[in-house]
Amino acid sequence: MALGASHRLTDGVAAVETMTRFALAVLALASGVYTYLGARTILDGSPTAVFFAAIIYSVSVSVGIYAFWSYMMRFYPHVTSRTGRTGLLFVMAAGCAMIMAMSSWLNAAALAGSAAVERHLAQSVEAYAADLDRAHQNALSAQSLLPDIQRASERFSQLAAVERQSGSLTGTTGSGSVVQLLTQMSSQMKSLEGNLNASRGEVSELVEQGQKRLETMRTILSTPGSIEPRADQFSSEAVALTNVMTQLSQMSIAPSIRRAAADLSLGFIAPVPDGAAPDLVNRQNQVMETVKASVAAQSKALAKAADEILARPPVNERRFVPMSPAEAVLQYAYDFIPAWAGAISIDLLPGVMVFILAIVHGSIRRQEEGMSFAERLTVAELMETLTLQKAISEKAIEARANGQPNAEEAALAAAEARAQRETDIGGRAESNDEHFSRDEHHRTVDGDDALHATNVASFDPAKNPRKGP
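Below the sequence we write its predicted structure tokens.
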């Protein structure tokens, strides 16, 4: 029946009260411990100052969490009005937000702070590796012009040799002005080729240094141990790698090739024809005009290729920014969702117990609302009522015998005073704290109507109210 179910729920609430307090204390203590570990990572100063500051903060957090959830467990289940529950829900939401702000993120820092810092270091290594690769490509991009320069140099050199041996260009053998012009162009091309080859060696050396720095950074990342000294060593290696990439960016020979390409055309020096016969002079002039046009075309092609290389986006200087565990766990929160879930659950799990108690007390109230007053009255309460009624009657008869006016009111006041004195000296019957058997449904007292046994309820306003929903 409803009475039995309500009785069992009431007993269950009383049975788990100690466990509830113990669980709340343990959760508050656990949150305080992890808050202490997280707070130490963000505090600066002497070790003693950091220790006491973290201890004070963590104790404050533990006390605040325990007090907040104790208030909610004590009051929320017994507030039945919609306005009151809405207000308490708003207070609970604000309190949960404050708890997460002052404790949960530090708990997450204690649980996953080192892993978050390692995640930051790993991403930094990958970013530095990508920057080094881009800087290497930009530095070697000018090497793609080397085959064109070599072909132009060989072509001018071969034309000079053929003209010297057979006179295929002017029709006259020997080393004349045309041969001198072709040799001049070949020498300029070979000079560019030499610059490219020299820069390749320097670039390779810088890239090798950068790769060694990256290897050292990966070794630091994979080495077990405390994260703080490893992060400091990683920061030093990152600065050295940044210097290497800066030098590598300055090693690009593309600007030099662009200027040299412009000099081929603008600085073209044509020798004076040295032919004795007017016909030979005319042929030399024609060949030199052809060579000049070829040089201009070659200069334009090299300038265009150099402009394409220079148009590539440069590698921006990257600066490594160290992070504390608390900062890293916020920066990479999506990578550590399980740690965040655990940290938040430690602080907000008591909220589940609050709603459990609210549901149970609500069920008890609904079950008792369907019972009549007689069904909710216990035999102990009935006996107290009869005793009080008897005392009132005796006082009233005594007052009438003495001829006092308002005898009944005086008797009632005297009986109430007597009952109050009995309560103060512990004279309340032990039956108030005991329940009768659930199977006992009827009992007759002094010929009155049968009453059902229910929870203990005090009719004396001066006595402590019974526990219940």
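Residues 2-113+334-368 form one domain.
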